[in-house]
Design goal:
By secondary structure, this protein is an alpha/beta fold. The protein has one domain: Flavodoxin domain (Rossmann fold, 3-Layer(aba) Sandwich), CATH 3.40.50. Helix content is about 35%, strand content about 20%. Helix 4 links the parallel strand 3 and strand 4 (about 110-120). The chain starts with a strand and ends in a 13-residue tail after the last helix. InterPro entries: Flavoprotein-like_sf, FMN_Rdtase-like_dom, NAD(P)H-dep_reductase. GO terms for molecular function: FMN binding; oxidoreductase activity.
């Protein structure tokens, strides 16, 4: 089964990333491959891992992790075939906490696919572009389709001041396309992650 992580990319108190990620998960559950049980989707919140400012003495590319928090984070990320990064835009960039979490690891990210759901005043597009540069460096294939959430358009403020993420059909259609691309690429890259595997999980060698 193909496993996809929805990564919550902010740790700020009062963050909106939780409501955006919940919308992503709920919309993803309506994707045909997920409904058919061919793909699983899990929320992964970097706030749950208590990662301090990068404190590993050896570069991540060595794979020599000394700290328990790093090993725990590495084990979780390594399980997945692809990712959906949910990120706000802070000062035209991704949150420092997200960049820090990415920088902790290396091989666990390699040869996988990722999509980006960004949000902010301008849809978080500048943060998404910065994140694409980082994806290239850690050998992650970032897909073309992207969802850009604008709080003034895609949030419902009728029940609370913080609002709830409630995008329209167009945004869900974009998310479905993005998931299609993540699944295509994650399956194609399977042979790089495991040379004995087939790029098509439905193919069983005889």
């Amino acid at each position: 089964m193909t496993q996809i992580a929805i990564i919550l990319g902010s740790t700020r108190p009062g963050r909106r990333v939780e409501t955006v990620a919940r919308w992503v998960a709920e919309a993803a559950d309506r994707h045909p491959a997920i409904k058919a049980g061919e793909v699983s989707v899990e929320l992964v919140d970097i706030a749950d891992y208590g990662l301090p400012l990068l404190d590993e003495p050896a570069p991540a590319a060595t794979g020599y992790y000394q700290n328990a928090h790093t090993k725990r984070w590495a084990a979780r990320i390594d399980r997945f075939d692809g990712y959906v990064f949910v990120t706000p835009e802070y000062n035209s960039a991704v949150p420092a906490a997200l960049k820090n979490a990415i920088d902790y690891l290396w091989s666990e990210w390699n040869h996988k696919a990722a999509g980006i759901v960004s949000y902010g005043l301008y849809g978080g597009t500048r943060a998404a572009e910065q994140l694409r540069q980082t994806m290239a460096e850690i050998k992650v294939a970032d897909v073309h389709a992207q969802v850009a959430i604008n709080p003034f358009i895609d949030f419902d403020f009728t029940e609370s001041e913080a609002g709830a993420c409630a995008p329209g059909e167009r945004q869900e259609a974009l998310l479905t396309t993005m998931l299609d691309e993540i699944l295509e690429w994650s399956r194609a890259l399977r042979v790089l992650r495991d040379p004995t595997a087939s790029a098509d999980p439905r193919f069983v060698p005889t």
